[in-house]
Amino acid sequence: MFARPSYRFTFLLFATLTLLTFFTLLESWLKAHTKQKISFISPPVHEATRPPKAIKAFWAEWAEVFEKARPKVEKIKVKNVASTEGSDAANGDRVASSYSLGMSPKDVESMQKSQKLLLTQLKNFDKGKAKGIFSGTGVVTVAGGEFFAPAITSIRMLRKTGSKLPVHVFLQSRAEYEWEVCEDYLPKLDAECFVLEDFLREPTPFSVTHFQLKALAILFSPFETILYLDSDCMPLRNPSELLSTEPFASTGLLAWPDYWISTEDPVFYTIAGMSSFPEHVPARATEAGQMLISKDKHLPSLLLAAYYNVFGPHYYYQILSQGAAGEGDKETFVAAAIVLGKPYFRVRHRVGTVGYFDEEGVFKGGAMVQHHAGDEYAMKLESSPDNQTAIRPFFLHANMPKMNLGHLVDESALQEQSGARRRLWGPKDSQENQLGQDFERAVWHEMISAGCTLQGVLRDWQGRDRVCERGREHWDKLYRKKDGT
Questions:
Q1: Number of Cβ atoms within 10 Å of the Cβ of 415
Q2: Distance of alpha carbon 389 from its chain centroid, rounded?
Q3: How many Å apart are CA 234 and CA 236, to the nearest integer?
Q4: Side by side, which strands form the sheet with 225-229?
Q5: What is the rounded average pLDDT for all residues in the chain?
Q6: Confidence check: pLDDT of 439 > 70
Q7: Inter-axis angle of helices 53-68 and 213-220, nearest 10
Q8: Residues 83, 88, 91, 93: what is their CA dihedral angle, to the nearest 10 degrees?
Q9: Got the DSSP string for 199-255?
């Protein structure tokens, strides 16, 4: 005879079957009622702001024109670097350089023929085709990698002027995209990231990098009116002062001078189909760390400048500078306006410099000072030399060294050989006289505020020890006031 199962066994069997039934029904209910909620729980996708379809389509059309107009000659080589001798005394109009690349008539004719394919379309440009593609006013800069930190400082200094202009930060590639910076930090400053390669059709016939990025970033930005700033360039005043007044209101293009005279080979104008060297162009070359441009007035100029930059490294950078200091994109924007006969205003007031004297008494320049275009324009309108407007400083281009806190605390420039801390842009009184404020102190305040937040975040600072703490040590010893501020 078999023994009857115990009450305990019966209870356990019943409980097990009940639980199995419950979880089976629960699973069915969850699948039926919470499918969307479950699918929502997934890792976040980090990506830059996507390019507007209208801008991608606009560029795709012009990229085909660029490809058809591609120069068909060998890469130009500079045999004799053009001299910039006489730059200090150059305050008048530009004269043709005596230096020449020595291009053969055959190559000149070939490049002229190629560029004419583009110029024909640009001179018959239908503004209606671009209507609605670009709108609004904002700032554009190019950053990424070691240029992220200076760009963030520049944007913070922009905000200190009271400017509320939104900012588009362009990165060369997706590899430079840092989601914590682009999706968390920059939006708090009303700035957003775009990846330039996202705008290029695939496969793209053009390889763009370094100096070429600027023109394309300005072109691809959805803004219609743009203040372009290099990542290491900062405004001293609210840029809105320039946007709604002369000379920008009538010309739609403002540019600033470089230290040196221009050194373009006069053959550039022949290639562009011009019959002679242009008149009334400032003798000094252009420095493109800052620029204002309206696409409504200058979209053809911007497209031509983009062409000069896309084919710059092999051809137009050499033609426009002949190997002289600062060779790159800087001359392409004004040159494009000249070729198309478009209005522009190039500040003639000489670029200033701030820096320090080292232990041997040698002056070390640290930043360029560019001046108020509106002040210069007003001065030209004044008939009496006794009633001239003072031309105020407007931008500071801190290019040597750049305001990257992670790099600065590792460099010897911050200290003298004795160990004493050093100001990079001169004494406080000197800066107040030249710039109207102790700008270096203001920049360091913003650098440290950002640096202590981004320490451990910026890829460029990985492996750099105590960036925030060392920045604060420099601040305490050099900039902190007696009241502790």
A1: 13
A2: 31
A3: 7
A4: 191-195, 167-171, 137-142, 225-229, 284-294, 253-261, 345-346
A5: 90
A6: yes
A7: 140
A8: 0
A9: TS-SS-S----GGGHHHHHHHHSS-SEEEEE-TTEEESS-THHHHTSTTHHHHSEEE
Q: Which whole-number Å values give the CA distances from 152 to 58, 167, 333, 407, 443, in the listed order?
A: 30, 11, 25, 14, 11
Q: Do 476 and 468 meet the contact criterion of CB atoms below 8 Å apart?
A: no
Q: Do 388 and 379 touch, CB atoms closer than 8 A? A: yes
pTM summary value: 0.89
Q: What is the mean pLDDT of residues 378-389?
A: 67
Distance CA 216, CA 207 (A): 12
CA-nearest of 308, 122, 156, 331 to 234 is: 156
β-sheet bridge partners, residue 233: 397
H or E element, residue 186: none
* Residue in this structure with the two tokens 């066994």, named with its chain if needed: 9
Average pLDDT over residues 229-246: 97
111-125 pLDDT tens trace? 999 999 999 999 999
- Span 282-321, pLDDT tens digits: 999 999 999 999 999 999 999 999 999 999 999 999 999 9
Q: What is the mean pLDDT of residues 128-144?
A: 94
DSSP strands (E only) in 307-461: 345-346, 352-357, 363-371, 393-397
Whole-angstrom Cα distance, residue 203 to residue 19?
Answer: 58
Cα–Cα distance between 288 and 330 in angstroms, integer? Answer: 5
Mean pLDDT of 15-44: 56
Give the Å distances, CA to CA, from 367 to 234, 399, 431: 10, 6, 12
Under 8 Å between Cβ of 289 and 127: no
Give me the amino acid identity at 225: T
- CB-CB contact of 301 with 337 (8 Å): yes
Angstrom CA distances, 9 to 1, 6, 310, stand at 19, 5, 83
SS3 149: helix
Beta pairing class for 345-346 and 225-229: unpaired
Give the β-pairing of 225-229 and 253-261. unpaired
pLDDT bracket for residue 353 (50, 70, 90): very high
Q: Which residue has the tokens 């490049």?
A: 111
The share of the chain scoring above pLDDT 90, in percent, equals: 77
Phi, psi of 91 (to 5 degrees): -120, -5
Strand-pairing partners, residue 282, are: 93
